[in-house]
Amino acid sequence: MSTLKYIVSSILGGVIFLGLLGGCQSLDENPAGTLVADSYFSTEEDLDAALTGVYAQLASNRWGGLGHTNIWVPLMGADDLTSQAGKPDYVQFDTFNPSSTNGGLKAASWTAPYRVIFAANNLLNNVDKMPISESAKTKAKAEACFLRAWSYFWMVRVFGEIPLQLDNSMNYKLPKSSLKEIYTQIIEDLQYAVDNLSADLPSSVGRPCKISAKGILAQVYLMMAGYPLNETDKYALAAQEAKDVIDSGLYYLLENYADLWKWNSDGNPEILWAIIFCNFNDCGNQNMNTFTGLNTQPSEENGWDQVFCEIGFFNRFPEGPRKDATYLTVFTGRDDGKKTPWQESTFKHPFLAKYRDGMVPNEPNYSGSDHMGGRDLNYLRFAEILLIYAEAQTMADGAPNAMAYDCVNKVRRRAGLEDLPAGLNQTAFRDAVIDEKGWEFCGEYCRWFDLVRTGKVEEMNQYKDAGDLKPQGTIDKSKYFAPIPYTEVLLNPSLGD
């Protein structure tokens, strides 16, 4: 287990409370909402503990935060994942009928990222006052900027216009900022991280370096090039950042796709950045665990049938080792060992195999607290960098170059597929890359965003199987962004405008 996992676990009950949105101190007693005392950082050890506290906010709420399956709630409009009628939070988004009272949406996509943002702001707005070396300050600020940028990047893609808060106050009356303002801040934060983080691999899994910050920046530029900003000049910037990552030689594809999901594979050389969790047995802290065990298992295996896979997407998925590692298609009874094909199961859908986080490798969780898994949330893999370059270079230059072909074909070869045919035009090549990315990252938090930015939401929802949930009414771009949670609008009515 990484050092960061142990550090985060040990400080959750202490330092981290300084950065929480909800604490023991009454806001009436502190109108400015300052959460960190001016005297807090006195040593580099204090600073590192506070920084680790920012990371801890990424993993501090397994019941609804970024480690819960609720992270998929606003992504259900894509074509890779679905749920069932008994899970209304998920179904709302899969049928394009979201509600502002959706609990899963607020927990994972609003509260959790803002918790990180406020903790990062606390550090950034206080660190320069402290008698600590400039090098230590700069490193801490770079990591805090990285985490703030990632949090805002998640939120702006889910909600669109949101309040942009950069100080360490709790101002519930801030108006929405424009998309351009938010993205400008994201780029500024990431560029600071790129300029000030080490060019070497990070010392702890879960912490960024210059190259992983460039990877996130490539994601940001690619998103900006598509809907809703449509700043097509950003394709060239996305391609350059992705190329810098590739040329660094720090990361590479694992030889076997299935190895990405092995019990001991967290922090493998394909992962540029992940949100770190640890299992109950290792950390002994429930708040540090993901919740993708029983939630992503079928009832035939005593699971909770919360998130599973769309049949239409499954049927289009190319056969081969990647598909075998992505899907669970035969369910094994816990008590009797009965084998049930997905077609004969309760909900008649295949399930994801990627997150089967049992104490026995490749087996599901069954006992005690084992359903509180410890698998990291692998947010950015090198395979995505290869595909970002392939798409962005093609869109920037009008046609794919040799490197673009090489990038996408490396991903395809590992999946057991033939190379793309030579001579594809810009549109055909780009469509092939988007398809490839969908298969490669099924259930990995990016399919919805790719469909939105490329204008393919309506098209891909036409390929649903008869057994999949269907959109209610017409899909239009007004439904691409989630509603801001109702409780937030009550606090700040301007958010409802």
TrEMBL record:
A Pfam cross-reference name: SusD-like_3
Native source species: Parabacteroides hominis
Chief localization: membrane
Family membership: Belongs to the SusD family.
InterPro entries: SusD-like_N (IPR033985), SusD_RagB_dom (IPR012944), TPR-like_helical_dom_sf (IPR011990)
Name by which UniProt lists this protein: RagB/SusD family nutrient uptake outer membrane protein
CDD domains: SusD (cd08977)
Residues of the RagB/SusD domain: 341-495
SUPFAM superfamilies: TPR-like
Keywords attached to this entry: Cell outer membrane, Membrane, Signal
SusD-like N-terminal domain sequence ranges: 102-222
Compartment(s) of residence: Cell outer membrane
